[in-house]
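Human: Cast an eye over this sequence-structure pair and say how the chain folds.
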Amino acid sequence: MTHTASPSAPASRVASDLAAARHVLEAEAAALTRMSADLDAEFSRALDLIEGRVIASEHGRVIVSGMGKSGHIGRKISATLASTGTPSFFVHPGEASHGDLGMITRQDALILLSKSGETAELADLIAYSRRFAIPLIAITERRDSALGKAADVILALPVNGEACPLGLAPTTSTTATLAIGDAVAVALLERRGFSATDFKVFHPGGKLGQRLLKVRELMHAAPEVPLIGLDAPMGEALIVMSAKSFGCVGIVDDAGLLAGIITDGDLRRHMAPDLLERPAAQVMTRTPRTVGPDSLAAEALGIMNDRKITSLFVVADGRPVGLVHMHDCLRAGVS
């Protein structure tokens, strides 16, 4: 059975489609540019409220809420906060009015989302925050709205209108709301010096978790690490290399510091009738490239690729504490 390819869309339709798409993208980009230019000390005040109440207490959370499309955006903002070290969860405003207000404590801070600031479903959340002096951050377009007047801090959305030709479907406003939420999460992250190591704690799975694996999580530790002393004969080096199966052996001095390494390549370069009687110190490559146990596995893999080697000694304070092999990284999905 043969299939006939669908005819291409008329050029006029393509032009119309591209024009519509570009209008949306340009309108939303303009809104973000304007919002960036309008940022002021209120943004820093919002961070102070969250840091002073949520982070300082060690038990508080940022509670995010919004209705409809704002609710969908709110869930993402809450997820971004939580994944970057600021405890957070989303509360649906309807459920809040039917018992979920009990999930919000005096150690928390609220971020409420509403373009108009008049979303009726947020009324109970607003009243609850005022009754129990819970900090309230509003993300809204209207400062003079019910939400804006009640809030401790307003992160104002630009009054640009929606990108939708009817001016009705939330487009520009939801993009702006999401962006300011991301800005809050990242600014808090930078205030606390949140590191890639911290980030991995909240992202153990998937490709991101693989990229953030540490060397210590993959390395072979004693007694698997092939090591001999400086004065050990090359016959012993060969025995250890064969037994450990890493294609190398580390040479340590009397203080236990890594002095050098012998690889298959070193054996070929020093091949001679008296090789097995020579001390390891005469054959080894001095000051080999190493990696620390808290380095990212991706960094170790990068070193091995650059140096065209298959293994690295893991060193702490000059002493070999492990060995990581390229195959260990690849098996863990590090790339």
In short: The first strand starts at residue 62 and ends at 66. The chain has two domains: 17-194, 215-331. The chain has 14 helices and twelve strands. Residues 85 and 194 are 7 Å apart (CA to CA).
